[in-house]
Amino acid sequence: MTAPLVTFRNVEKRFDDFVAVRDMTLDIHEGEFLAIMGSSGCGKTTTLRMLAGLDTPTGGEIRIGGELMNDVKPHERDTPLVWQSLALFPFLTARENVEFGLKMRGISGAERKRRALDWLDRMQISEFSERNVATLSGGQRQRVALARSLVMEPKMLLLDEPLSALDANLVIRMQGLLTQLQKELGITFIYVTHSQSEAFAMADRVVIMSQGDIAQIGAPRDIYRSPANRFVAEFVGRNNILTGQVSSSDATGTRITTPQGAFVASTPQSPPNAGQSASFTVSADLVSLSATEPSADNKAQATLISEEFIGTVVTLFLEGAEGLEFKVQMQERALMALDLEPGMTLWLSWDAQNANILGES
User: Fold this and answer.
1) What's this model's pTM, rounded to 2 decimal places?
2) Which of 9, 52, 336, 342 makes a 20 to 30 Å CA pair with 93?
C-alpha cells in the first residue's frame, strides 16, 4: 500500500485548559473522500484548521506527503479550504473571484481568464461569469467557491460544512456534483459536516468524533450497521440499544438478559464473559413488527406511541418494559397494511445476526 498523503500522529490541540483534539492518530490516503463528523464542539473543525495551517498543534505531528507541516504557514501549503460562509469577494465578479488565487501566483491575465472560464463552465455557471457574486443564488455562489479552489489544481481540498446554508433540494444536487468532481479529478477531499446524510452519501470513509477523540473510523455502511460503542450507536441512525447481563457466550451467539427480555446477539471477536454487563444495538429498519407473537428467538412487546413520516419511510416510536424506547422503520405501504393506532400493543422481533454488541465508549 502506498504511503498516506496526510498523517496525524498523536496530535493534540489545547485552548488554555480546554482540549479540542486529543491524541489524534489518522491516515488519509491520496484520492480518498474522507468525511469528519460529530456534534458541535467535538473537534472536527479544529482538525481541519490544523491541517490548513490556521491552528498550530499543541502536540504531535501533522505530515503532508511525508513533510512535517506543524509550523508551515497556510499560504505555503497546498490545502485550499471551502468555508461554510464561502468567503467570496462581494465586489468582484464570479470570474474575478475564481481568478484571484491564480493572480496571487503571478499567472498571466489571459491564462487566468481561460482557466477561470473553464472551471465555471465545468460548474455549469459560465453564463454568470461576469455577474457580481452578490447577485448570485446560494447554490451559484457555492459553485464559484468550489471553482476558486479547484482552479489551483490542489492535491487535496478541505471543505468545512459547505452545504449547511443551502435548502434541502440544492444540498442533494451539490452532493452529486461534489462526488462526481472528486471521482473525476482524483483529488483528496476532506469534508467536515454535522450531517450524517451528507457524510454517508459521499464519503469513502467516515471519522466520527466525540469530545476531541475519534470514536470510530470506517466505511459508512460499517459504521451504520456496526457502531463501535454506545456514543456512535446513539449518534448515527435510528438504533435500538438494549442493556443487560450476559448469561453465556459462544460461537452460536451471546445471550443477554435485559428488563425487556432475554435476547441473542452475534458474538464479537472479543466475547464478553458470563455475568458481565453488555449492550447491543439493532437498527430500526431491521426490526420486524407484528400484531401477534412471532416464533423468533428475539422478540419483545411494546406499545405504539407515535410515528414520524418522511417521504415513503415511516419511523414508529414504541415504549417497552421500564420505559425503553423502541424504533421501527418501514415503508409507508407496508405500514398501511397493518392498520395501526397509537396505544396498540405490538410484537417486535429481529435476527440475532442483526444484533451487534457494543464496545466500551
Assistant:
1) 0.88
2) 52
